[in-house]
């Protein structure tokens, strides 16, 4: 049995090695994308702990620019549009932070969830090493998000680009669902972010990558899906701005959103994409 598994893994590795990018090809094959994803994931496993934390901290900070813009747009149009319409319009500015993070190659948990899972599925790393890496990335992302939330909660009203009422409304909106709803919503968001990583790898130029990031993250925002990292900023900012959002609410929403995002990226993208490839390997 063990020998059969080893032979199967050897065949998988050989097939991945054959997946070399062709200059004449209009699109990358499934194997080419999978190989690049595994290689990218492998590189992150080789980074030092301090490098991973600093890169993920940077991602948490940079996502804050999305929050700054969505608060500004919400506040600017609050007198002329209904609240329901405002939560749809902010989808147009929601992608900015994601564009900065993905193109800048900072480590964002939801974008890297499936990427970091693939080397484990390919038997190059253990589940323990995956969970350790996820923990470091989540820590850096959440810390960066909380730090930028403190800054924006102060600077927004000072510059007159949004007020405390706007901060609280957005936070209440994100947290105002039952935990089962947040879980399923977060799974869908994690699924979409995993696809974002896959599609960005499949694209060949910066413009197409920006379009992919915009379409996927704007769709997430328009549908109101729960993203654990920018959601961390949205709910934490409301928590420190008033009594409407409690610490318990913040912690429970964030925990469920993280779990959902992890399930969506690891299972619906990494596992299914990987199995779709290896099932064709003899």
UniProtKB/TrEMBL annotation:
Residues 7-29 have a biased composition (Basic and acidic residues). It holds the Pfam family Form_Nir_trans. Its main location: membrane. GO terms for cellular component: plasma membrane. Keywords: Membrane, Transmembrane, Transmembrane helix. The keyword Cytoplasm does not apply. The chain crosses the membrane at residues 52-77, 89-109, 130-155, 175-198, 210-230, 250-272. It is found in: Membrane. It comes from the Bacteria. One of its GO terms (molecular function) is formate transmembrane transporter activity. It is a multi-pass membrane protein. Residues 1-29 are annotated as: Disordered. The keyword Transmembrane applies. This is Formate/nitrite transporter FocA (FNT family). It comes from Leeuwenhoekiella aequorea.
């Amino acid at each position: 049995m063990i020998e059969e598994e080893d032979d199967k893994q050897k065949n998988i590795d050989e097939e991945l090695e054959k997946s070399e990018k062709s200059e004449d090809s209009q699109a990358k094959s499934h194997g080419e994308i999978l190989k690049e994803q595994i290689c990218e994931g492998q590189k992150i496993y080789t980074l030092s702990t301090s490098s991973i934390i600093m890169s993920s901290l940077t991602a948490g900070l940079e996502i804050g620019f999305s929050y700054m813009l969505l608060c500004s747009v919400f506040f600017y149009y609050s007198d002329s549009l209904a609240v329901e319409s405002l939560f749809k319009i902010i989808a147009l500015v929601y992608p900015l932070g994601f564009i900065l993070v993905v193109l800048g190659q900072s480590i964002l948990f939801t974008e890297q969830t499936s990427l970091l899972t693939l080397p484990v599925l390919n038997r190059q790393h253990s589940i323990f090493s995956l969970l350790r890496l996820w923990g470091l990335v989540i820590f850096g992302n959440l810390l960066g998000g909380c730090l930028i939330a403190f800054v924006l909660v102060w600077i927004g009203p000072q510059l007159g680009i949004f007020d405390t009422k706007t901060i609280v409304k957005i936070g209440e909106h994100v947290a105002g669902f039952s935990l089962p709803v947040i879980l399923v919503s977060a799974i869908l968001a994690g699924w979409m972010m995993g696809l974002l990583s896959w599609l960005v790898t499949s694209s060949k130029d910066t413009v197409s990558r920006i379009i992919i990031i915009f379409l996927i993250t704007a769709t997430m925002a328009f549908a109101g899906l729960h993203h654990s990292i920018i959601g961390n900023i949205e709910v934490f900012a409301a928590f420190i701005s008033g009594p409407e959002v409690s610490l318990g609410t913040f912690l429970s929403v964030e925990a469920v959103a993280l779990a959902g995002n992890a399930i969506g990226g690891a299972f619906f993208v990494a596992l299914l994409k990987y199995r779709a490839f290896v099932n064709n390997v003899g």
